[in-house]
Design goal:
- This protein has about 180 residues and is α+β, with helices and mostly antiparallel strands.
- The protein has one domain: 3-Layer(aba) Sandwich (NADH Oxidase), CATH 3.40.109.
- It is about 45% helix and about 15% strand.
- The chain has 5 helices and 4 strands; from the N terminus they run H-E-H-H-E-H-E-H-E.
- The protein has a 4-stranded antiparallel sheet with strand order 1-2-4-3, with helices on both faces.
- Helix 1 packs antiparallel against helix 4, helix 2 runs antiparallel to helix 3 and helix 2 crosses helix 5.
- The longest helix has 22 residues.
- The N and C termini lie far apart (about 50 Å).
- The model has no long low-confidence stretch (mean pLDDT about 95).
C-alpha cells in the first residue's frame, strides 16, 4: 500500500488539533480550578468565524481583522481556547484591585488570564512537536467570543492550524477593504 501525504493531511491535522485540545485541558490551572473551555472549528464554522471578523472590521475599522479573516480560511481547523470568569479569591491584587470583592464586574481575574495563556502555550507546544503551522489570533478569538462559540467565556483566543509547504499565518500582507 502507498499512502500519499496529500491524501491524509487533513485527517492528520484534525488529529493533531484534537491532541492540542487535550494539551490545553491538561495544562496546569491556578488553585486546581478548571475554568478553561476548548473547542475545534472546521469547514463551514471557519467560514462563519471569518464572516464575523469581516463584520467586526466594519464596526471598528481595525484592518488586521480583514487580513486575519482571509487568513483563517487557509486553516484545516481552528482551536478555540477560552476561560470563564471565576475569581480565585486570592485577593492578590494582580487584576488591579486590592481584593476580589473590589474587582469591577467584567474585569478578568488575573489567574484566569494566566490559565488561558498556559493552556494556549501547551496547545501550541503540541502543534510544534508535530510540525504543523499555527498562530495565536486575538482577532479570531474575539470574534468567536462575540459568537459565544465557547459558552460564557470572557477571554477567547483562536489558533488556526495548517499543514502546507509554507506557513500561511506568517509573512502576511495587509488586506484592503473591498469598495
Amino acid at each position: 500500500m502507498i499512502l500519499n501525504e496529500r491524501d491524509i493531511r487533513n485527517e492528520q491535522v484534525l488529529r493533531i488539533g484534537m491532541q492540542m485540545m487535550t494539551a490545553a485541558r491538561t495544562a496546569p490551572k491556578g488553585k486546581g480550578v478548571d475554568v478553561i473551555e476548548v473547542a475545534m472549528l472546521t469547514g463551514e464554522d471557519i467560514k462563519r468565524l471569518s464572516d464575523m471578523m469581516i463584520a467586526m472590521y466594519g464596526e471598528h475599522g481595525m484592518k488586521f481583522f480583514l487580513r486575519d479573516a482571509d487568513n483563517i480560511l487557509s486553516a484545516e481547523c481552528i482551536i478555540l481556547i477560552g476561560t470563564r470568569e471565576h475569581p480565585q479569591g486570592l485577593n492578590c491584587g494582580h487584576c488591579g484591585f486590592a481584593t476580589c470583592a473590589e474587582r469591577t464586574q467584567g474585569v478578568p481575574c488575573a489567574i484566569n488570564t494566566v490559565d488561558v495563556g498556559i493552556a494556549i502555550g501547551s496547545a501550541c507546544a503540541t502543534a510544534a512537536d508535530h510540525r504543523v503551522d499555527t498562530r495565536v489570533m486575538f482577532s479570531a478569538g474575539l470574534a468567536a467570543q462575540r459568537m459565544n462559540l465557547l459558552k460564557d467565556c470572557k477571554q477567547v483566543f483562536a489558533i488556526p492550524v495548517s499543514a502546507s509547504s509554507k506557513n500561511p499565518f506568517f509573512d502576511r500582507k495587509p488586506k484592503e477593504p473591498q469598495p
